[in-house]
Design brief:
Layout: E1 6-13, H1 15-18, E2 23-24, E3 28-29, H2 31-41, E4 46-51, H3 59-72, E5 77-81, H4 84-87, H5 94-110, E6 114-118, H6 123-126, H7 134-151, E7 154-156, H8 179-192, H9 214-238, E8 250-255
Parallel strand pairs: 1-4, 1-5, 5-6, 6-7
Antiparallel strand pairs: 2-3, 4-8
Helix pairs in contact: 2-8, 3-5, 5-7
């Protein structure tokens, strides 16, 4: 990929790409896509960056609501990451979900964009209650790798590195990355695309720390169940989404300052 002159980067996805977990509603969200845009700009290229992601979106909604706009922006670089919201739901259809991703891969590479995507780490290490979903995650990742391979899409394979499931890279809700997690995902995407100055230090393990005691672990689980899982379940029952009424945070390309 040429990095001289002007580059246009467009990010498509859900809450992870929007940047939830890296900032807040008051100050705004940064997130790995913003940080990856800064990797691009650090090469000396002029980078115009749009982020079309909206929290809560399913893969089909990302395709339906973001792909057309992304194509009209004629990106040089694009990232596509969606499907985890689908994976957590009872009616999950792996073929349909990855099919939506593959259409986006094909359309974006078809207009000449260099495209990258991600795999998802071991969910059971982040949320022990989600252990029954591990086979879904493994299958999802393999399907994404295969679809990406068919279209020349770069894969930031975070699932292949144990650090990606380190709780310190995840926020209190265990669904969204912490600022350090977002920083590392940006590094993984930059490395997958071969951006000058990038390397694989994003995958370096964090220092060892003592395991929490039984009572502390139980208290942490109780807080998580009450503060995060409970409200999530209530939204599902009511047919609501965290993204209801929301639009993209950066719908038009704007210059990236470094």
């Amino acid at each position: 990929m040429r990095l001289d002159g002007n580059l246009r980067y467009v990010a498509l996805g859900d809450s992870q790409t929007e940047g939830i977990g890296d900032g807040d509603e008051g100050s705004g969200y940064r997130g790995w896509a913003d940080r990856f845009a800064e990797h691009l700009a650090a090469t000396g290229a002029r980078v115009d960056y749009a982020n079309l992601a909206v929290r809560g979106r399913l893969a089909g909604q990302v395709r339906e609501g973001q792909l057309k706009d992304a194509l009209e922006l004629r990106p040089d670089v694009a990232t596509v990451f969606a499907g985890v919201n689908d994976l957590l739901r009872p009616g999950y259809d792996a073929g349909a979900v990855v099919g939506h991703l593959e259409v986006m891969f094909a359309e974006l590479t078809g207009v000449g964009a260099r495209v990258a995507t991600l795999t998802f780490p071991d969910i059971a290490r982040i949320v022990p209650w989600a252990r029954p979903l591990v086979p879904r995650v493994l299958d999802f990742n393999e399907r994404v790798r295969e679809a990406a391979g068919r279209h020349g899409v770069a894969v930031a394979d975070t699932a292949a590195h144990a650090v990606a499931a380190d709780r310190r890279l995840w926020g209190a809700d265990r669904l969204h990355c912490s600022p350090e997690g977002h920083r590392r995902i940006a590094g993984a995407v930059a490395h997958a695309l071969g951006i000058p100055g990038s390397d694989q230090t994003w995958a370096d393990p964090l220092p060892e720390r003592p395991a929490p005691g039984v009572f502390r672990s139980a208290a942490s689980e109780a807080v998580w169940l009450g503060s995060f899982l409970g409200p999530w379940v209530v939204r599902r029952i009511r047919g609501r989404s965290s993204g209801d009424g929301r639009t993209a945070k950066r719908p038009v390309p704007l210059p990236v300052e470094v």
